[in-house]
């Protein structure tokens, strides 16, 4: 193993750490320590100030870290779908978030009309979204397979407008939230043991639905990873992603693989949708946030890189929550965009990607 | 000196658009203003996205900078928007050049560039929403002056003046567009669009000309932003920096034919009336579609469908596709007689 392989993650890590260092620097009152009347040694004064800052903001920061990592898992799952589609089809699927919104509404209808629990509903939402993905690919994406890249981007953009506004027409802009009747207080986990929710770790709160969303996202990611790595289908997908013509030459039906991949990618957002609906109400533009973060994660983690997607998801989730603290009142996506542009400029192949 | 064909077309169109308002009622006049306005913005986008092939998905950044600069200068310092719009254009050009330098310098290309422009636009929106000196999310409102004022570019009674202003702006923008297209700069940009590496190998300073294209496009867009602020009298970050502006700006040139001089205008001529009529349709639908009454979203939905159809069936836009269709039709009509002559020749 050469160190070059790790250089990317190293640089990325340093950028993120220095970003946070700058943030902390701006929030701790260091300058007071440089004044002549400051007490004691400069360093100890700084340390004192920092610990005072931590005493005041420590809880908030721990909470943000926990929330960021939890939602980051879901971001990672959404990004995994996007990165698979990109890896195989080389299309930036702008409609990824809109398809997630579709998943949110399907989960909502299942719960609201048929009384199906969203977590059980996963077994309906995921296959349904898979088929929606197949249809969308066949009808919309496939005819433009050979179009220039920006036209394909435009195509998925048109699809987004179509889906979003169709949902707006049918469901109006009213947010649709669901409320689980369990997950608060003593909760029986599958009849095996009883847990107290929300969990508190160092006064940071972990709610039932967010924990389940995180764990569910990890499980789905693991399943998908196994499929990609161990099965024949996965092998065919990887082969197509690596070398389309070569894969076709050895008898892989690449058109079929395209379609399946788009379906699997869409199924990912179906799972993510079912997992987040208990704490993120559905509205026609609800998927946008996940869409934007997924793009950034995919660029961050390296196009077509599954592990990178998960890692990027955690980083972006963390960044988003932490910027909310350090720049109170500022929109929490701003730090995410800063990271995005830094990565685009200095490491366009992503943290884990190999240089072209 | 002969006048080139493009300028002849421009002169003819100017004449047509100068005569049209004589026959227009208030509604039609508003429609015409909107049409010219989107054609103008499309022309600006076309220089960067069409000629140079640098697909921008973040023109709202330039638009917003223009709208905010002229409005802040006017409201806080009493500087006339006629001057302020050029200050805004300067700022936007600087911003565009900086953005272009950063991204192009590091070899960001294709759809990555599109995503980068999107990120820059979203960032400018977030920053604007967080800046108190431009009233953060509340936005800025133009004063009501109770009449028309050329010096302040506010026309509350006579909408025709807005029409004159935007027509003038469109003519100038189109002249710039034609000039670029027919001169060295245009050839460089087209070469970059077709094959950047080959262009660089032939000695075209690709970085420089791409940045120039972005800056020109940004400046023209920013002036459009100032016009928007003057005409509607209200701006806020979500309105002028939002994604919807970025999409609307690129829609006309793509539909009409990106990379063609007249693409944006053709696109606007087709899309703008359609947009207006869908709005009327949704407001007052026929009996059997009465469930659609007052439902938001149908007009944008239609845009989505149009984009999909355009990309799949006419990737070159109307300007590019119609001649192809005509050619195919002509061939089909001639088909029989031609095969007959071929038979005879044998």
Summarize the structure.
The complex is a heterodimer of chains A (356) and B (346). By secondary structure, chain A is mainly alpha-helical.
Beta-strand portion of chain B reads under 5%
Q: So how many helices of chain A?
A: 13
Structural class determined from secondary elements of chain A: mainly alpha
Let me know the number of strands of chain A: 4
If you had to describe this structure to a student in words, what would you say it looks like?
The complex is a heterodimer of chains A (356) and B (346). A two-stranded antiparallel ribbon of chain A has the order 1-2. Chain A has a two-stranded antiparallel sheet with strand order 3-4. The model of chain A has no long low-confidence stretch (mean pLDDT 80). Chain A is mainly alpha-helical. In chain A, 71% of the residues lie in helices and 4% in strands. Chain A is globular, with a radius of gyration of 22 Å. Chain A starts with a helix and ends in a 10-residue tail after the last helix. By secondary structure, chain B is an all-alpha fold. Helix content of chain B is 74%, strand content 2%. In chain B, strand 2 and strand 3 (154-155) form a beta hairpin. Classes of the chains: A mainly alpha (356), B mainly alpha (346).
